[in-house]
């Protein structure tokens, strides 16, 4: 771990951040590489064309499944087809369907393949391996059959960490978010235990095929009950223990919201795929509705049982001495989220620094009266997208990993809970205000990280075509053959 942290600190050198070490998606920009370096496939060779199209759709399915934006997925699919000699292709990426069609001239019908994405998973190692496979296809002249075998191995490979490690990481993330919001040690411990229970229960529900909406409903219910029960015990026994159940509940809400593709939905809408963006955003709203329903049911049942949660007061500033603790808590939460999402070891210190940057900006904004929550979170997300994107390129890690991990601790879990508390407590105006605040924060996070990632991509974009390494080897071998003759 020391080695990774030391290496990550070395990447902070501003000269090294902008040197020419482009990410795979950067080299796919039009004109940035030599397109179709191989001989074009014969338009009458249906088997060869179908093999390449099927490979490209498989790669695109993994990218879309991991939360990659529709436009980036479309560009990488077209790139893989172009490398293998198929330049005249049409790629259509929607919410859960990928259609790739290769034109063969005016006299022959096009060849079309389609792939459907039935689920969404958070396996960042799989995403990084697909990213490296695209690099190898570009640089090492891998045959389509070999690439097919590699993709199948990536898809069927087990997770790099056991489930118990991922479960503990989810609990650690909730504890970090609780401290970031202002909770004490007992609240962090309670958030850890509650989140572990939520993850275990939802994993069992997922195995029996329970729809995600009801998984969110059950998760929201579990997020409230332990915190409310512990608060009731503390109040009845008149114990002098600092326990704010709102921070524990908000931490559970953040964990349940973290798996939803907020970044991808807004990024699709911004970058030119509004239909896919609307579909993803509607899924986000539906899953959030299930979460809110679970929280609301739990609060109503607890009130009937005589347990009343404390009134949520407006957020106040905290002493400056707590700033380092909150920054560290945000960094730990981002690190834990990356670990829970099965990120590679090289990505963990980069995610840690991304979370620290976002938490530092948002925590420091509380000392600036003119900077509201929405603007502060937008600025923090932009910095995470910029600096995290540059660091991700140094670590040869997909920038999406750092972007999602960096902004996850900043998700508006507390604002969502305040909105629901107001709506259930006959404070309709306050509830609607906090709900709009939560939506504004979510949109600012997604838009900010998209802007930061765009700037990072512009800084690291290569200025001249890159010749694949295998082409240089072929040329050297040819020259050596001529010399022997």
TrEMBL record:
Question: PANTHER family recorded for this chain?
Answer: SUCCINATE TRANSPORTER SUBUNIT YJJP-RELATED (PTHR34390:SF2), UPF0442 PROTEIN YJJB-RELATED (PTHR34390)
InterPro entries linked: ThrE-like_N, ThrE_2, ThrE_Dicarb/AminoAcid_Exp
Full protein name: Threonine/serine exporter family protein
Task: Spell out the subcellular localization from the entry.
Answer: Cell membrane
Q: What is its main location?
A: membrane
Q: Name one GO biological process term.
A: succinate transport
Give the similarity note: Belongs to the ThrE exporter (TC 2.A.79) family.
One GO term in the molecular function aspect is: transmembrane transporter activity
User: Which ranges does the record mark as transmembrane?
Assistant: 168-201, 213-234, 246-266, 278-303, 323-343, 350-368, 374-392, 399-420, 432-456
Residues of the Threonine/Serine exporter ThrE domain: 328-455
Q: Which organism is it from?
A: Gordonia mangrovi
What keywords sit in the KW lines? Cell membrane, Membrane, Transmembrane, Transmembrane helix
Q: Where is the Threonine/serine exporter-like N-terminal domain?
A: 54-301
Task: Name one cellular component (GO) term.
Answer: plasma membrane
Q: What is the lineage of its organism?
A: Bacteria, Bacillati, Actinomycetota, Actinomycetes, Mycobacteriales
